[in-house]
Design a protein that fits this description.
Helix content is 41%, strand content 17%. The protein is α+β, with helices and mostly antiparallel strands. It folds into three domains: 158 residues, no CATH class; 215 residues, no CATH class; 85 residues, no CATH class. The longest helix is centred in the middle third of the chain and has 18 residues.
Length: 474
């Protein structure tokens, strides 16, 4: 009679198993109760030299992380099969005589058999650790692949072959497939709700291929959004999502070149060649500075963010050399990211930390005549600001479709440098919120100095500059 530990009077383990053939050798697949793992799979003696072991030594730092993964996700954790070699005379008893019946049966293993793990020692150790915290795990099972032990050399080769071609998923793909971590949920919501990111984010690669038609990777946007929400980790998930969407939407309005790439008026590759704002360092800097902006100006950050339009993002801008560029190449170091953050803070009127002040001082020394050229750049910005317009973006419900007046679309006043740019901004706003002609109430273009209307942008994007013409439209 078999007891609850799978033993029979002849002192054998009796395991349900499926028999298979691989490379001309038999192997068996079985299910092992987790509570039996410490008894069946003894750890190798760490004192043995490497050439006398069948696997690498146990990395004790990995075990708690794996155990906590199991403990923290009791309803949806996944652990792959453990592979072990059996050093004993075993007996397989098929349940039938037909073709399929001969593959399934009971595997009788002597109790003094030695199970030597060739793949899965950290999983076994993690289960053993987790069992101490949650004994109920002992009634769950893990898949086990058992092979006959035919010597140390074969077992070592098996370990090598099982681990030779293992490749971790790319960082972007890991985020895309992660439905458990809140920050992954936030960044995927950002992509779904912002047209520029929905079209121009590479969700598969950690670094962009040279000829990629995308501007950023999911991994970069994830890191940038994590920086943005660094002080909001205790907020409700929906609040984090809403804030991240609002911020990145506002940023995309301030960098209309991104929309130009989405509209395919310029290629992503050309944009990366000519501009800094289409590189990872800019997105990371925008995420980090956004966190400070939200804290310092919680009620007026959107207005402050408009100063991003004053930045000369061209790679030829001498401000970048010695700050984030070295001999014409963009640096991805932490120091360069810190310098980018400090630079953006200067434009947004945010205070610098002592470390950022040091970085800025060092940057000014490295760049070629940076101080003089920065003054010239600021003067250009001042002159250019005198020619600015303001475009109004607004919408309401369409009564023809029984929509209420307030449809949850924000009203914005954004500075622009030309009527053409105003049209492009309006079209991005209309596309983003999926507005029709019956919704569109914005489009008024004002002179920034006199606040007088000088033009009107129709829902179609057409520019009207004659008073009679736009009054007829309204």
């Amino acid at each position: 009679m078999t007891n609850d530990q799978g033993l029979i009077p002849s002192f054998e383990y009796v395991l349900p198993a499926i028999r298979g053939i691989q490379a001309g050798r038999e192997y068996y697949v079985s299910m092992c109760p987790v509570r039996f793992i410490p008894k069946l799979f003894a750890r190798e003696d760490e004192e043995n030299p490497p050439d006398q072991r069948v696997a690498r030594s146990l990395n004790s730092k990995r075990v708690p992380d794996m155990a906590n993964y199991i403990l923290n996700n009791p309803d949806n954790y996944t652990v792959s099969a453990i592979t072990a070699a059996i050093d004993a005379d075993i007996n397989f008893e098929p349940i039938g005589i037909e073709k399929e019946g001969r593959k399934m049966g009971r595997l009788r293993v002597p109790m003094d058999a030695r199970f030597q793990i060739t793949d899965g020692q950290h999983r076994c150790a993690a289960f053993e650790w987790a069992l101490k915290q949650n004994p109920a795990l002992g009634y769950e099972t893990v898949a086990v692949i058992l092979v006959l032990d035919i010597g140390l050399r074969y077992s070592q080769q098996m370990f090598l072959d099982l681990n030779r071609y293992g490749v971790h998923p790319d960082a972007s793909l890991a985020i895309l497939y992660d439905h458990r971590h809140p920050q992954a949920t936030v960044v995927k919501a950002v992509i779904r709700n912002i047209n520029v990111f929905r079209s121009l984010i590479d969700k598969e690669h950690q670094t962009l291929p040279v000829r990629s038609g995308k501007l950023f990777t999911l991994h970069t946007l994830y890191n940038a959004t994590s920086m943005l929400l660094a002080d909001w980790q205790t907020a409700e998930l929906e609040q984090q999502i809403d804030l991240a969407i609002r911020y990145w939407q506002a940023v995309s309005y301030c960098i209309p070149d991104w929309e130009a790439v989405r509209q395919r008026t310029v290629s992503a590759r050309e944009m990366r060649q000519d501009y800094v704002h289409s590189h990872a360092i800019a997105l990371l800097g925008l995420g980090a500075v956004g966190s400070v902006l939200l804290s310092v100006y919680p009620h007026s950050w959107e207005e402050r963010l408009q100063e991003l339009r004053q930045i000369d993002w061209l790679r030829s801008n001498p401000d970048w050399e010695g700050r984030i560029m070295v001999k014409g190449q963009i640096s991805r170091s932490r120091t360069s990211i810190g310098r980018m953050v400090a630079y953006l803070k200067g434009y947004l009127g945010l205070p610098l930390t002592s470390q950022e002040e040091e970085l800025e001082n060092a940057s000014s020394l490295v760049g070629r005549e940076n101080s003089r050229q920065q003054d010239q750049q600021k003067q250009r910005f001042i002159r250019r600001n005198t020619d600015q317009f303001i475009v109004i973006l607004s919408a309401c419900g369409n009564p023809d479709f029984r929509q209420t007046e307030d449809i949850g679309v924000p009203t914005l006043k954004l500075p622009v440098h030309s009527l053409e740019e105003a049209s492009q901004i309006c079209q991005g706003y209309i596309l983003e919120y999926e507005l029709g002609g019956g919704n569109w109430t914005g489009g008024q273009v004002l002179d920034a100095r006199t606040n007088e209307q000088v033009g009107y942008i129709a829902c179609s994007g057409k520019i009207w500059t004659e008073l009679e013409d736009w009054m007829k439209l309204k």
